[in-house]
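Reminder: ligand-aware prediction takes two inputs, not one.
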Amino acid sequence: MSDNIQTVTVLSKTTWTPNLFSFTVSRPDSFKFTAGQFVRLGVNPSRLKYYQQVEASDEALNEDIFRAYSIVSSPFDEVLEFFSIVIPDGAFTSQLQHLQVGDELLLNTMPFGFLTLARYQKPLPKDLWLLATGTGLAPFLSMLQDLKTWEDYEHIVLAYSARSTDELAYVKQIERLQDDFGSLVDNPAKLIFIPIVTRETVDGALSERLPKLLLEGTLQARAGIALDVDTTHVMLCGNPDMVEDTKEALKKLGLVMNRRGEGNIAVENYW
Ligand SMILES: Cc1cc2nc3c(=O)[nH]c(=O)nc-3n(C[C@H](O)[C@H](O)[C@H](O)COP(=O)(O)OP(=O)(O)OC[C@H]3O[C@@H](n4cnc5c(N)ncnc54)[C@H](O)[C@@H]3O)c2cc1C
Ligand SMILES: NC(=O)c1ccc[n+]([C@@H]2O[C@H](COP(=O)([O-])OP(=O)(O)OC[C@H]3O[C@@H](n4cnc5c(N)ncnc54)[C@H](OP(=O)(O)O)[C@@H]3O)[C@@H](O)[C@H]2O)c1
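Here is what comes back for the chain with NAP:
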């Protein structure tokens, strides 16, 4: 096993829907990361308690399978939290869905990724827009648990799109962040949360896809803030089609890709 790979223990599991769940694992003392980064997590199906319970002994499943996972928890937490989809025929998540407290996973302790606020050079613009679909919410939850994010921006807009209300996970936790970090920076209104539910009509949520909402100005109107090449940072994470279409919409609105510290838009594709 590589020097970077450590065994971690599952400490808790939260099931949001049959296709979405979160879990926490123990955090190795030496493991450091920046909010927004991802790690490679490994599962060996034959070592899950579930397999022992069903007495499955398929040799083919006695192998380590690794996938990239964004870290949900803050860099200051004692545990590491992750938010996962279940793809029924996916090699990794068809196994990971059976996780139970006490199971062991593998963690490659080399953190990866440039979807971090450090990628933007100072002086910082005023506004941060975080646009996510599905589990692409994960890196933004980590950033929102870092006080520096709240101190560095005048407004933070979090727009989070899911197909249905039950798939809009973490809403209560986001509201708690609004209260807790909002009071720490004496501005409860700093985080503007905009839920988007695309396949149901839901009170309080927008219902169109992100690119359309941006091009029509609906998202900006809901946030009460304009997008401006000089004052805006925008991060996109999740479905690659959303990332591509939203990137194009933002460019039409005058924003530019962030390269070598300069520019507005930073992205991360999940597949
Ligand atoms: C940088 C990075 C960070 C990632 N972070 C996360 C994370 O925090 N949580 C998470 O659940 N996944 C995350 N992923 C995706 C993850 O690595 C796996 O693809 C996912 O766990 C499915 O693995 P699988 O083997 O079951 O299916 P795969 O064979 O990997 O994927 C099969 C198909 O499932 C769909 N799919 C894959 N991942 C997702 C997803 N997250 N949401 C919706 N559809 C998906 C795509 O259509 C994909 O082609 C991340 C990927 C990258 C590149
Ligand atoms: N969610 C389910 O009910 C379900 C059930 C079984 C399996 N799965 C599997 O899970 C995966 C999808 O999971 P998911 O629902 O988390 O992700 P998703 O398909 O990416 O949907 C999440 C959100 O992203 C939006 N979106 C998709 N493409 C977009 C684009 N080009 N521009 C802007 N927004 C866009 C969706 O809007 P739209 O609603 O308009 O697409 C939805 O609001 C698929 O592989 C699927 O097979 C999902």
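Helices lie at 49-54, 93-96, 138-144, 147-152, 171-184, 210-216, 218-223, 240-252. The chain has a mean pLDDT of 95. We will return to this case in the review session.
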